Amino acid sequence: TIVNKFISCILAVFSAIIIREGIALMILGQHQRSSALMIPMNIVYLAVPLGGAIMLFYSIMLLIKKGGAS
After folding, report:
1. What is the pTM of this model?
2. CA distances in angstroms from 54 to 2, 14, 16, 49, 60, listed in the order given
3. From CA 4, how far away is CA 13, in angstroms rounded?
4. Above 70 in pLDDT, residue 68?
């Protein structure tokens, strides 16, 4: 239905924003290290754009396969 397509489109836009802001967060944290593990924080912050990419993929698959969220 049209509502399901709209919801999938909104999810795709939100996911794209999450990816963009997550990459900005990674760039911001590239010179920081975690105090406990001593790993670069951009590795930790990688979870944000990666999660956004998975959500974007899922929302696009919903639009292609079923014509919207079910």
Report:
1. 0.81
2. 23, 12, 10, 9, 10
3. 14
4. no
Closest CA to 10 of 62, 46, 48, 49: 62
Token code pair at residue 35: 């105090």
β-sheet bridge partners, residue 33: 40
pLDDT tens-place string over residues 28-58 = 988 999 999 999 999 999 999 999 999 999 9
Span 14-32, pLDDT tens digits: 999 999 999 999 999 889 9
Give residue 34's identity as a one-letter amino acid code: S
Q: Which helix or strand (DSSP H or E) is residue 31 part of? A: none
Q: Determine the 3-state secondary structure of 48 from DSSP.
A: helix
CB within 8 A of 19, min separation 6: which ones? Answer: 49, 52, 53, 56
